Amino acid sequence: MNPPRAVGRVPDANQLDAEFDHESHRRCVAAIYPHGVSGGILSGLRVIEVSAFVAAPLAGVTLAGMGADVIRVEQRGGGIDAARWPLFEGRSLYRAGLDQGKRSLAIDLRSEVGQELVTQLIAGSGESGGIVITNLGARGWMSYDRLTQRRPDLVMVVISGSPRGGAAVDYTVNAGAGFPWVTGPEGWAGPVNHVLPAWDVATGVLAATAVLAAERHRRLVGRGQLVELALSDVAVAVAAHLGLIAEAKLVAEPRGRFGNDLYGTYARDFRTRDGRYVMVCALTTRQWQSLGEATGRAEAFRALEAIHGTDLGDEGERFRHRREINVLIEPWIGERTLDEVGKAFAAAGVLWGPYRTFKELVVEDPLAADPPASPIGFADFDRPQAPPAPAIGADTEALLTAELGLDPGQVADLRAQGLID
After folding, report:
1. Is residue 46 pLDDT above 80, yes or no?
2. What's 43-239+392-416's CATH class?
Protein backbone atom coordinates (compact mmCIF):
# COMPACT_ATOMS: atom_id res chain seq x y z
CA MET A 1 0.00 0.00 0.00
CA ASN A 2 1.31 3.42 -0.89
CA PRO A 3 1.74 5.82 2.00
CA PRO A 4 -0.68 8.73 2.10
CA ARG A 5 0.42 11.69 0.01
CA ALA A 6 1.51 14.66 2.02
CA VAL A 7 -0.75 17.64 1.62
CA GLY A 8 1.18 20.87 1.28
CA ARG A 9 0.03 24.37 2.01
CA VAL A 10 -2.42 25.69 -0.57
CA PRO A 11 -0.80 28.66 -2.34
CA ASP A 12 -2.64 31.95 -2.03
CA ALA A 13 -4.16 33.80 -4.96
CA ASN A 14 -1.25 36.27 -5.26
CA GLN A 15 1.26 33.41 -5.50
CA LEU A 16 -0.79 31.66 -8.17
CA ASP A 17 -1.13 34.90 -10.13
CA ALA A 18 2.63 35.52 -9.98
CA GLU A 19 3.38 32.03 -11.31
CA PHE A 20 0.85 32.22 -14.15
CA ASP A 21 2.30 32.86 -17.61
CA HIS A 22 0.05 35.74 -18.62
CA GLU A 23 1.79 36.43 -21.94
CA SER A 24 1.45 32.82 -23.08
CA HIS A 25 -2.18 32.87 -22.02
CA ARG A 26 -2.76 36.09 -23.97
CA ARG A 27 -1.29 34.60 -27.17
CA CYS A 28 -3.39 31.47 -26.75
CA VAL A 29 -6.59 33.47 -26.33
CA ALA A 30 -5.71 35.66 -29.31
CA ALA A 31 -5.22 32.57 -31.48
CA ILE A 32 -8.55 31.06 -30.49
CA TYR A 33 -10.47 34.36 -30.62
CA PRO A 34 -8.90 36.32 -33.51
CA HIS A 35 -11.58 39.01 -33.32
CA GLY A 36 -10.81 39.73 -29.67
CA VAL A 37 -12.28 38.62 -26.39
CA SER A 38 -14.82 41.44 -26.50
CA GLY A 39 -16.77 39.13 -28.80
CA GLY A 40 -17.52 36.83 -25.89
CA ILE A 41 -16.51 33.37 -24.77
CA LEU A 42 -18.75 31.73 -27.42
CA SER A 43 -17.33 33.80 -30.26
CA GLY A 44 -17.20 31.63 -33.39
CA LEU A 45 -20.20 29.49 -32.47
CA ARG A 46 -23.19 29.84 -34.80
CA VAL A 47 -26.75 29.01 -33.81
CA ILE A 48 -29.82 29.13 -36.04
CA GLU A 49 -32.98 29.90 -34.08
CA VAL A 50 -36.37 29.17 -35.64
CA SER A 51 -38.68 30.28 -32.90
CA ALA A 52 -41.48 32.28 -31.34
CA PHE A 53 -42.63 33.43 -27.89
CA VAL A 54 -40.19 33.02 -24.94
CA ALA A 55 -38.29 29.79 -24.29
CA ALA A 56 -36.43 29.34 -27.58
CA PRO A 57 -35.72 33.07 -28.11
CA LEU A 58 -34.45 33.27 -24.52
CA ALA A 59 -32.09 30.36 -25.22
CA GLY A 60 -30.83 32.24 -28.26
CA VAL A 61 -30.35 35.56 -26.49
CA THR A 62 -28.55 33.79 -23.64
CA LEU A 63 -26.04 32.33 -26.12
CA ALA A 64 -25.78 35.61 -28.04
CA GLY A 65 -24.99 37.43 -24.80
CA MET A 66 -21.89 35.20 -24.47
CA GLY A 67 -20.74 35.94 -28.00
CA ALA A 68 -22.41 33.31 -30.18
CA ASP A 69 -23.59 34.35 -33.64
CA VAL A 70 -27.32 33.72 -33.30
CA ILE A 71 -29.46 34.08 -36.42
CA ARG A 72 -33.18 34.24 -35.78
CA VAL A 73 -35.17 32.90 -38.73
CA GLU A 74 -38.87 33.61 -39.11
CA GLN A 75 -41.67 34.02 -41.57
CA ARG A 76 -41.47 37.00 -43.90
CA GLY A 77 -43.38 39.91 -42.38
CA GLY A 78 -42.77 38.69 -38.85
CA GLY A 79 -43.74 35.60 -36.93
CA ILE A 80 -46.68 35.01 -34.63
CA ASP A 81 -45.14 37.07 -31.83
CA ALA A 82 -43.94 40.02 -33.91
CA ALA A 83 -46.38 42.48 -32.33
CA ARG A 84 -46.63 41.04 -28.83
CA TRP A 85 -47.13 43.49 -25.95
CA PRO A 86 -45.64 45.61 -24.45
CA LEU A 87 -45.51 47.94 -27.43
CA PHE A 88 -43.86 51.33 -27.91
CA GLU A 89 -44.58 53.37 -31.03
CA GLY A 90 -45.78 50.21 -32.74
CA ARG A 91 -42.71 48.11 -31.95
CA SER A 92 -42.76 45.10 -29.63
CA LEU A 93 -40.50 45.78 -26.63
CA TYR A 94 -40.87 42.11 -25.80
CA ARG A 95 -39.26 41.16 -29.12
CA ALA A 96 -36.65 43.88 -28.79
CA GLY A 97 -35.47 42.37 -25.51
CA LEU A 98 -35.40 38.77 -26.71
CA ASP A 99 -33.60 39.56 -29.97
CA GLN A 100 -30.70 41.59 -28.58
CA GLY A 101 -27.42 40.70 -30.21
CA LYS A 102 -28.95 38.45 -32.88
CA ARG A 103 -29.16 38.72 -36.65
CA SER A 104 -32.56 38.49 -38.32
CA LEU A 105 -33.51 36.55 -41.44
CA ALA A 106 -37.12 36.87 -42.61
CA ILE A 107 -38.12 34.67 -45.54
CA ASP A 108 -41.19 32.82 -46.78
CA LEU A 109 -40.85 29.59 -44.81
CA ARG A 110 -43.94 28.17 -46.52
CA SER A 111 -42.16 28.09 -49.87
CA GLU A 112 -39.77 25.36 -51.01
CA VAL A 113 -37.22 28.01 -51.97
CA GLY A 114 -37.32 29.56 -48.50
CA GLN A 115 -37.07 26.17 -46.82
CA GLU A 116 -34.08 25.20 -48.98
CA LEU A 117 -32.22 28.43 -48.21
CA VAL A 118 -32.77 28.03 -44.45
CA THR A 119 -31.65 24.40 -44.69
CA GLN A 120 -28.43 25.56 -46.36
CA LEU A 121 -27.92 28.10 -43.56
CA ILE A 122 -28.44 25.43 -40.89
CA ALA A 123 -26.09 22.99 -42.61
CA GLY A 124 -23.30 25.50 -43.23
CA SER A 125 -20.53 27.27 -41.30
CA GLY A 126 -18.22 24.27 -40.87
CA GLU A 127 -17.38 23.10 -37.36
CA SER A 128 -18.91 26.20 -35.78
CA GLY A 129 -22.34 25.69 -37.39
CA GLY A 130 -24.88 22.94 -37.64
CA ILE A 131 -26.73 24.01 -34.49
CA VAL A 132 -30.43 24.83 -34.46
CA ILE A 133 -32.95 25.68 -31.75
CA THR A 134 -36.67 25.59 -32.46
CA ASN A 135 -39.99 25.51 -30.66
CA LEU A 136 -42.07 25.60 -33.84
CA GLY A 137 -42.10 21.86 -34.41
CA ALA A 138 -39.44 19.62 -35.95
CA ARG A 139 -41.56 18.33 -38.82
CA GLY A 140 -41.25 17.96 -42.57
CA TRP A 141 -38.31 19.92 -43.96
CA MET A 142 -37.39 20.97 -40.39
CA SER A 143 -37.30 17.43 -39.01
CA TYR A 144 -34.10 16.09 -37.51
CA ASP A 145 -34.03 13.22 -40.00
CA ARG A 146 -34.33 15.54 -43.01
CA LEU A 147 -31.77 18.04 -41.76
CA THR A 148 -29.21 15.37 -40.85
CA GLN A 149 -29.24 14.27 -44.48
CA ARG A 150 -27.58 17.62 -45.21
CA ARG A 151 -25.63 17.93 -41.94
CA PRO A 152 -24.95 14.51 -40.33
CA ASP A 153 -23.45 16.01 -37.14
CA LEU A 154 -26.39 18.36 -36.58
CA VAL A 155 -27.12 19.52 -33.02
CA MET A 156 -30.84 20.24 -32.76
CA VAL A 157 -32.69 21.36 -29.64
CA VAL A 158 -36.46 21.01 -29.94
CA ILE A 159 -38.60 22.72 -27.29
CA SER A 160 -42.23 21.73 -26.78
CA GLY A 161 -44.95 22.47 -24.26
CA SER A 162 -45.54 18.84 -23.38
CA PRO A 163 -44.04 15.58 -24.70
CA ARG A 164 -47.44 13.95 -24.42
CA GLY A 165 -48.96 15.96 -27.26
CA GLY A 166 -51.47 18.79 -27.38
CA ALA A 167 -50.86 22.51 -27.15
CA ALA A 168 -49.19 23.75 -23.97
CA VAL A 169 -47.51 27.02 -22.99
CA ASP A 170 -46.02 28.33 -19.77
CA TYR A 171 -49.35 29.47 -18.40
CA THR A 172 -51.14 26.16 -18.97
CA VAL A 173 -48.13 24.18 -17.74
CA ASN A 174 -48.01 26.26 -14.55
CA ALA A 175 -51.71 25.66 -14.01
CA GLY A 176 -51.09 21.92 -13.82
CA ALA A 177 -47.85 22.04 -11.85
CA GLY A 178 -49.34 22.81 -8.42
CA PHE A 179 -47.89 26.26 -7.88
CA PRO A 180 -51.11 28.29 -8.37
CA TRP A 181 -52.56 26.49 -5.32
CA VAL A 182 -49.77 27.66 -3.01
CA THR A 183 -49.52 31.18 -4.47
CA GLY A 184 -51.57 34.08 -3.15
CA PRO A 185 -53.06 35.27 0.15
CA GLU A 186 -54.06 32.92 2.91
CA GLY A 187 -57.68 31.86 2.68
CA TRP A 188 -57.99 32.50 -1.06
CA ALA A 189 -60.28 29.90 -2.60
CA GLY A 190 -59.16 29.60 -6.23
CA PRO A 191 -55.87 29.32 -8.12
CA VAL A 192 -53.55 32.32 -8.37
CA ASN A 193 -51.33 32.73 -11.44
CA HIS A 194 -47.97 34.46 -11.26
CA VAL A 195 -46.76 37.02 -13.79
CA LEU A 196 -43.25 35.66 -14.39
CA PRO A 197 -43.27 32.93 -17.10
CA ALA A 198 -41.03 30.79 -14.92
CA TRP A 199 -41.15 27.62 -17.01
CA ASP A 200 -40.35 29.50 -20.21
CA VAL A 201 -37.38 31.12 -18.47
CA ALA A 202 -36.08 27.88 -16.94
CA THR A 203 -36.59 26.01 -20.21
CA GLY A 204 -34.78 28.70 -22.20
CA VAL A 205 -31.75 28.60 -19.93
CA LEU A 206 -31.76 24.77 -19.97
CA ALA A 207 -32.00 24.81 -23.76
CA ALA A 208 -28.89 27.03 -23.94
CA THR A 209 -27.16 24.59 -21.58
CA ALA A 210 -28.25 21.69 -23.78
CA VAL A 211 -26.74 23.36 -26.87
CA LEU A 212 -23.38 23.65 -25.13
CA ALA A 213 -23.51 20.09 -23.77
CA ALA A 214 -24.41 18.63 -27.17
CA GLU A 215 -21.80 20.75 -28.95
CA ARG A 216 -19.16 19.50 -26.49
CA HIS A 217 -20.28 15.93 -27.15
CA ARG A 218 -19.94 16.56 -30.90
CA ARG A 219 -16.42 17.88 -30.46
CA LEU A 220 -15.43 14.84 -28.40
CA VAL A 221 -16.99 12.03 -30.44
CA GLY A 222 -17.96 13.63 -33.75
CA ARG A 223 -21.68 12.89 -33.44
CA GLY A 224 -24.57 15.29 -33.48
CA GLN A 225 -27.50 15.15 -31.13
CA LEU A 226 -31.27 15.55 -31.07
CA VAL A 227 -32.25 17.18 -27.77
CA GLU A 228 -35.90 17.29 -26.69
CA LEU A 229 -37.02 19.55 -23.89
CA ALA A 230 -40.58 20.19 -22.70
CA LEU A 231 -41.86 22.96 -20.44
CA SER A 232 -44.06 20.51 -18.53
CA ASP A 233 -41.08 18.25 -17.80
CA VAL A 234 -39.08 21.22 -16.55
CA ALA A 235 -41.92 22.21 -14.20
CA VAL A 236 -42.15 18.70 -12.74
CA ALA A 237 -38.37 18.45 -12.41
CA VAL A 238 -38.16 21.77 -10.55
CA ALA A 239 -41.05 20.80 -8.25
CA ALA A 240 -39.22 17.55 -7.50
CA HIS A 241 -35.88 19.28 -6.83
CA LEU A 242 -37.61 21.66 -4.38
CA GLY A 243 -39.10 18.75 -2.43
CA LEU A 244 -42.68 19.54 -3.40
CA ILE A 245 -43.29 16.19 -5.13
CA ALA A 246 -41.91 14.23 -2.17
CA GLU A 247 -44.00 16.34 0.22
CA ALA A 248 -47.15 15.58 -1.79
CA LYS A 249 -46.39 11.85 -1.60
CA LEU A 250 -45.38 11.65 2.05
CA VAL A 251 -47.27 14.37 3.97
CA ALA A 252 -51.00 13.89 4.49
CA GLU A 253 -51.85 17.60 4.73
CA PRO A 254 -51.50 19.43 1.38
CA ARG A 255 -49.28 22.51 1.27
CA GLY A 256 -51.34 25.61 1.96
CA ARG A 257 -51.02 29.29 1.14
CA PHE A 258 -49.07 31.65 3.34
CA GLY A 259 -49.35 34.94 1.48
CA ASN A 260 -46.05 36.83 1.55
CA ASP A 261 -44.66 34.75 4.41
CA LEU A 262 -41.96 32.36 3.22
CA TYR A 263 -42.85 28.77 4.08
CA GLY A 264 -40.64 27.09 6.66
CA THR A 265 -38.54 30.09 7.65
CA TYR A 266 -38.90 33.81 8.41
CA ALA A 267 -39.38 36.28 5.59
CA ARG A 268 -42.14 38.72 4.69
CA ASP A 269 -42.95 42.23 3.50
CA PHE A 270 -43.29 45.39 5.63
CA ARG A 271 -44.25 48.99 4.81
CA THR A 272 -42.05 51.96 5.70
CA ARG A 273 -43.18 55.37 6.92
CA ASP A 274 -42.73 56.88 3.45
CA GLY A 275 -44.93 54.26 1.79
CA ARG A 276 -42.25 51.96 0.41
CA TYR A 277 -42.20 48.21 0.99
CA VAL A 278 -39.27 46.07 2.06
CA MET A 279 -38.68 42.32 2.14
CA VAL A 280 -37.01 41.18 5.36
CA CYS A 281 -35.48 37.70 5.65
CA ALA A 282 -33.93 35.77 8.53
CA LEU A 283 -33.02 32.40 7.04
CA THR A 284 -30.02 31.68 9.26
CA THR A 285 -29.33 32.07 12.97
CA ARG A 286 -26.88 34.90 12.25
CA GLN A 287 -29.44 36.75 10.15
CA TRP A 288 -32.01 36.31 12.92
CA GLN A 289 -29.59 37.81 15.44
CA SER A 290 -28.85 40.68 13.06
CA LEU A 291 -32.55 41.47 12.74
CA GLY A 292 -32.91 41.62 16.54
CA GLU A 293 -29.85 43.85 16.81
CA ALA A 294 -30.96 46.29 14.08
CA THR A 295 -34.50 46.69 15.39
CA GLY A 296 -33.66 46.60 19.11
CA ARG A 297 -36.00 43.62 19.48
CA ALA A 298 -33.46 41.02 20.63
CA GLU A 299 -34.79 41.11 24.21
CA ALA A 300 -38.37 40.84 22.98
CA PHE A 301 -37.39 37.83 20.87
CA ARG A 302 -35.91 36.13 23.94
CA ALA A 303 -39.09 36.84 25.89
CA LEU A 304 -41.11 35.26 23.11
CA GLU A 305 -38.89 32.17 23.29
CA ALA A 306 -39.45 31.92 27.04
CA ILE A 307 -43.24 32.17 26.68
CA HIS A 308 -43.37 29.33 24.17
CA GLY A 309 -40.42 27.33 25.43
CA THR A 310 -38.82 27.41 22.02
CA ASP A 311 -35.64 28.46 20.25
CA LEU A 312 -36.19 31.03 17.53
CA GLY A 313 -32.70 30.30 16.27
CA ASP A 314 -34.46 27.43 14.48
CA GLU A 315 -35.99 28.71 11.23
CA GLY A 316 -38.93 26.32 11.49
CA GLU A 317 -39.79 27.80 14.90
CA ARG A 318 -39.56 31.28 13.44
CA PHE A 319 -42.11 30.26 10.84
CA ARG A 320 -44.47 28.81 13.46
CA HIS A 321 -44.34 32.03 15.47
CA ARG A 322 -44.14 34.41 12.51
CA ARG A 323 -47.28 36.35 13.40
CA GLU A 324 -45.98 37.30 16.85
CA ILE A 325 -42.61 38.21 15.36
CA ASN A 326 -44.37 40.35 12.74
CA VAL A 327 -46.11 42.29 15.51
CA LEU A 328 -42.71 43.17 16.95
CA ILE A 329 -41.04 44.11 13.66
CA GLU A 330 -43.89 45.90 11.90
CA PRO A 331 -44.05 49.08 14.04
CA TRP A 332 -40.28 49.52 14.02
CA ILE A 333 -40.19 49.58 10.22
CA GLY A 334 -43.43 51.58 9.99
CA GLU A 335 -41.89 54.40 12.03
CA ARG A 336 -38.93 54.81 9.66
CA THR A 337 -38.32 55.82 6.07
CA LEU A 338 -36.85 53.44 3.52
CA ASP A 339 -33.50 55.21 3.80
CA GLU A 340 -33.48 54.93 7.60
CA VAL A 341 -34.43 51.26 7.48
CA GLY A 342 -31.76 50.57 4.87
CA LYS A 343 -28.98 52.22 6.86
CA ALA A 344 -29.91 50.40 10.08
CA PHE A 345 -30.18 47.05 8.32
CA ALA A 346 -26.92 47.53 6.44
CA ALA A 347 -25.07 48.39 9.65
CA ALA A 348 -26.29 45.21 11.36
CA GLY A 349 -25.99 42.91 8.36
CA VAL A 350 -29.71 42.20 7.98
CA LEU A 351 -30.83 40.30 4.89
CA TRP A 352 -33.36 42.59 3.24
CA GLY A 353 -34.30 44.31 0.01
CA PRO A 354 -36.65 47.06 -1.18
CA TYR A 355 -39.70 46.34 -3.31
CA ARG A 356 -39.56 48.25 -6.59
CA THR A 357 -41.81 48.89 -9.53
CA PHE A 358 -40.14 48.49 -12.90
CA LYS A 359 -39.88 52.28 -13.14
CA GLU A 360 -38.22 52.46 -9.72
CA LEU A 361 -35.85 49.68 -10.78
CA VAL A 362 -34.69 51.70 -13.79
CA VAL A 363 -34.10 54.77 -11.62
CA GLU A 364 -32.46 53.05 -8.65
CA ASP A 365 -30.41 50.25 -10.18
CA PRO A 366 -27.61 51.26 -12.60
CA LEU A 367 -27.60 47.77 -14.11
CA ALA A 368 -31.25 48.11 -15.15
CA ALA A 369 -30.60 51.52 -16.65
CA ASP A 370 -27.87 50.12 -18.91
CA PRO A 371 -27.94 46.30 -18.80
CA PRO A 372 -25.06 44.16 -20.10
CA ALA A 373 -25.49 41.63 -22.89
CA SER A 374 -25.20 38.83 -20.33
CA PRO A 375 -25.34 38.70 -16.53
CA ILE A 376 -22.49 36.14 -16.62
CA GLY A 377 -18.98 37.51 -16.11
CA PHE A 378 -15.88 35.66 -17.37
CA ALA A 379 -12.46 36.74 -16.13
CA ASP A 380 -10.82 36.76 -19.57
CA PHE A 381 -13.66 38.45 -21.42
CA ASP A 382 -15.20 41.87 -21.45
CA ARG A 383 -18.83 42.16 -20.49
CA PRO A 384 -20.32 44.28 -23.30
CA GLN A 385 -23.53 46.22 -23.02
CA ALA A 386 -26.62 44.70 -24.58
CA PRO A 387 -26.66 45.52 -28.31
CA PRO A 388 -29.94 46.60 -29.87
CA ALA A 389 -32.20 44.03 -31.48
CA PRO A 390 -32.38 44.15 -35.27
CA ALA A 391 -35.59 45.01 -37.04
CA ILE A 392 -37.30 41.86 -38.32
CA GLY A 393 -35.53 40.81 -41.51
CA ALA A 394 -32.86 43.51 -41.21
CA ASP A 395 -30.04 41.06 -42.03
CA THR A 396 -31.82 39.03 -44.71
CA GLU A 397 -29.97 40.37 -47.73
CA ALA A 398 -26.56 40.30 -46.01
CA LEU A 399 -27.07 36.71 -44.86
CA LEU A 400 -28.22 35.54 -48.28
CA THR A 401 -25.19 37.09 -50.00
CA ALA A 402 -22.40 36.66 -47.44
CA GLU A 403 -23.41 33.32 -45.95
CA LEU A 404 -25.20 31.56 -48.81
CA GLY A 405 -23.34 33.10 -51.74
CA LEU A 406 -26.32 34.57 -53.60
CA ASP A 407 -25.54 37.44 -55.95
CA PRO A 408 -27.52 40.72 -55.99
CA GLY A 409 -29.55 39.56 -58.97
CA GLN A 410 -30.69 36.40 -57.19
CA VAL A 411 -31.65 38.43 -54.12
CA ALA A 412 -33.63 40.82 -56.30
CA ASP A 413 -35.39 37.85 -57.88
CA LEU A 414 -36.38 36.50 -54.43
CA ARG A 415 -37.78 39.91 -53.57
CA ALA A 416 -39.70 40.08 -56.82
CA GLN A 417 -41.27 36.68 -56.08
CA GLY A 418 -42.40 37.95 -52.63
CA LEU A 419 -40.15 35.50 -50.77
CA ILE A 420 -38.30 38.25 -48.90
CA ASP A 421 -39.09 41.89 -48.20
Report:
1. yes
2. alpha beta
